[in-house]
Every structure is written in structure tokens, then in C-alpha cells.
Design brief:
It contains 9 helices and 5 strands, in the order H-H-H-H-H-H-H-H-H-E-E-E-E-E. It has 237 residues and is α+β, with helices and mostly antiparallel strands. The chain has a 5-stranded antiparallel beta sheet with strand order 4-3-2-1-5. A hairpin with a 5-residue loop joins strand 3 and strand 4.
């Protein structure tokens, strides 16, 4: 972090970028040892952004937001990077009707939603179980509130995207091929830039079948990918 701050104060362009690249490498090693620290992941993303490593920056921000959906700086910088990717590149769409209704998905990580769901169910059962006469009717009416909360949390968890198959290209100029071979024709007219967000499918040797945000599929070298939740040694990032 001290090196990062020194790079911010550096006026020479080449030295500035070199300093951010050094900070990015150190923070990448540190987050590998402490992968459950969203603030550390956001720091790594900022260093990668200023080191002109958009793939690692997007990966870092996505990992940070998986742990802390309310982390504002990671969300803002992720949006900035997505906006500056090529216009032809498909990217995840946010802000639809479902996202608006389930806004708490951007505030609570899934483990916290499970806790809220369990607490709401327990509260509803307790309110339904106690009291007698008029008091019982009042408690059952009040129980509708935790029931509604439990239903909302359940719906949120059911629609929560499974991040275990999400990945980001950390290498630029990757050719999306129609088969798992260097000689296979390209499946897309443009090489994919670093920062392309994909869903991982089949693994076959050194190749991985991926799906872009618009549903286009193809094969890329596994070494070009890093998953949000590391699954395989070749995809660990």
C-alpha cells in the first residue's frame, strides 16, 4: 500500500506504471494468501486498474463483490471498466426488473441472506405458536411480516447467480475458437480482450469451453482464464 501511494505521487508516466505493476504483483500474492478479505481484493483491483491490467482488475472487483456486495468502490470501478471495454463485446447486464426488486442481493452476501432467512422462519414459527384468543390472532397477524421476509430471502437465494462457474480472461488478444484446437477456426470475429467475463463449461486438456454474456460459446486456453471461485489448478488465477 505504501508503494501504491508512492506511485500515485509519481509524475513520470513510465515510473508510475511500473510502480503500480509492482504493487499489483505484491497485492496479488497477498490476496492469494488471504482470499476472504474484500477490502484487500479491492486494493488489488485498484492497483491492477492503474497498472493497465483490466482483466485482473475486473477479477479482483468481482471477487470482492462476491464477498461484500455493498463495497461501493469495487462496484463503481467494475462499472467503469465494463463501460470502457469494446462496444462489440457482450458483458453482464445489470439493473433489470428482477435486480430492482431484489436489491438486497447487492447489499447482503448469500451467507448473510441464509442467516436472515433462518431468523425470519424462526420468528414466524414462534409468533404462530404462542398466545391465545385475541392475543393469538394478533401474533399470527404479526407473523406475516417474517413470513414475507422469509419468502423474499428464499426468492433471492433461488435467483442468486452461481459464481462458481464465472471466470474472467486475464490475458488480452485471446481467440475464441470453435473447437479445442489451435487449428480450429475462430468462433468470433474479434480476439477477446482482457476483462472479458465468461461462464466456464467443459474442461478438455488445456482447453476450456466458455460462454459469453450473450450466449456465444467457444473454446479458449485455460491458462488465459481465472475463475471467481478457483475450481481447477489451470483456472485458479
Amino acid at each position: 500500500r505504501a508503494g501504491y501511494q508512492q506511485s500515485l505521487a509519481q509524475t513520470d508516466r513510465d515510473k508510475r506504471r511500473s510502480g503500480f505493476a509492482e504493487s499489483e504483483g505484491l497485492l496479488r500474492e497477498l490476496q492469494a494468501a488471504y482470499p476472504d478479505r474484500p477490502q484487500l481484493l479491492a486494493d488489488w483491483g485498484n492497483a491492477a486498474l492503474l497498472a493497465q491490467e483490466p482483466g485482473r482488475a475486473i477479477l479482483a472487483y468481482r471477487r470482492a463483490l462476491r464477498l461484500d456486495p455493498a463495497l461501493g468502490r469495487a462496484r463503481r470501478n467494475l462499472s467503469f471498466l465494463r463501460e470502457h471495454l469494446p462496444e462489440w463485446l457482450p458483458r453482464p447486464q445489470k439493473g433489470g426488473t428482477v435486480d430492482s426488486l431484489l436489491f438486497w442481493q447487492q447489499l447482503l452476501p448469500a451467507p448473510h441472506q441464509h442467516v436472515v432467512l433462518a431468523a425470519a422462519v424462526a420468528a414466524a414459527v414462534a409468533l404462530f405458536s404462542f398466545g391465545a384468543g385475541r392475543r393469538r390472532r394478533l401474533l399470527r397477524t404479526l407473523a406475516l411480516l417474517p413470513v414475507a421476509l422469509a419468502l423474499a430471502m428464499g426468492l433471492s437465494l433461488l435467483t442468486e447467480r452461481d459464481a462458481r462457474r464465472d471466470a474472467v480472461l486475464v490475458v488480452s488478444g485471446v481467440t475464441l475458437r470453435s473447437a479445442d484446437s489451435n487449428g480450429a477456426p475462430p468462433a468470433l470475429g474479434h480476439p477477446l480482450p482482457a476483462g472479458t467475463e465468461v461462464t466456464v463449461g467443459e474442461l478438455r486438456g488445456e482447453w476450456t469451453r466458455v460462454t459469453l454474456a450473450d450466449g456465444q460459446t467457444g473454446w479458449v486456453k485455460s491458462s488465459a482464464l481465472a475463475t471467481l471461485v478457483p475450481l481447477e489448478p489451470g483456472l485458479s488465477g
